[in-house]
């Protein structure tokens, strides 16, 4: 058991809900339209990073005419509209019983729980899947100026639940999120994609394995 931890901060996309597949589909549609090569490997680099930074990563493979900032923000806005049309289809069934039970058990054990997400859609997603009440606080892309790998979103989450960095553990599927946790002085718990990353402190096969440690 990890004795000094009193707050658990969860990434949202790819940890609690599988909206990462919708991010992929929306970016894929944009990339196809623009003739930009885009696959799962490039998509993995977008995990945890902001919408505009994601676009910049995708544009590394773009060979068309120069794009102005206005054109770039129009593209990002269009991607978001496509992404939100997928989010509209989400229901409480999109959160597994395993996720709900794990969060409930952790709360019963006395941990403070927060969401720490780069997404500006986090509030909408939590509402769609009826998960907001499972958390004491939500820190998201609307409340920060620097996205992961900067620790800002997690520092904000820890403050909201009244925990110091060293009392906080972050659960993440993204390398950028593991970096953010470690650079913020927090414990980094990896799941999915992030388990291959050597900065992770704990690696989970499945989310309920959190109960082995906390
Ligand atoms: C993160 C995703 O949670 O949110 C990233 O892992 C995404 O892929 C980022 O770019 C921003 O999301 P949104 O919803 O604000 O476009
Ligand atoms: Mg994620």
Please summarize what this structure is.
The protein contains 9 helices and 6 strands; from the N terminus they run E-H-H-H-H-H-E-H-E-H-E-H-E-E-H. It has helices spanning 20-34, 40-44, 51-59, 69-87, 97-108, 122-128, 152-160, 175-183, 210-213, and strands at 7-10, 112-116, 137-139, 168-172, 187-191, 202-204. It is globular, with a radius of gyration of 17 Å.
Model description:
This protein has 214 residues and is an alpha/beta fold. It has 2 domains: 7-17 and 95-213, Rossmann fold (3-Layer(aba) Sandwich); 20-87, Putative phosphatase, domain 2 (DNA polymerase, domain 1, Orthogonal Bundle). Helices cover 42% and strands 12% of the residues. It has a 6-stranded parallel beta sheet, sandwiched between helices. α1 packs across α4 (69-87). It is globular, with a radius of gyration of 17 Å. It binds 6-O-phosphono-beta-D-glucopyranose and magnesium ion. Residues 11, 13-15, 47-48, 173-174 line the site of magnesium ion.
Keywords:
single chain, globular, 6-stranded parallel beta sheet, DNA polymerase, domain 1, binds 6-O-phosphono-beta-D-glucopyranose, Rossmann fold, alpha/beta, 214 residues, 9 helices, binds magnesium ion, 6 strands, 42% helix
Roughly how many Å is the radius of gyration?
Answer: 17 Å
Q: Which outline best applies?
A: globular
The CATH homologous superfamily name of the largest domain equals HAD superfamily/HAD-like
Beta-strand portion reads: 5-15%
Attached small molecules: 6-O-phosphono-beta-D-glucopyranose, magnesium ion
Largest sheet: 6 strands, parallel
> Segments where pLDDT lies below 50 for 5+ residues?
none
In DSSP terms (H or I, runs of 4 or more residues), the helix count works out at: 9
CATH topology of the largest domain: Rossmann fold
Number of strands: 6
Number of domains: 2
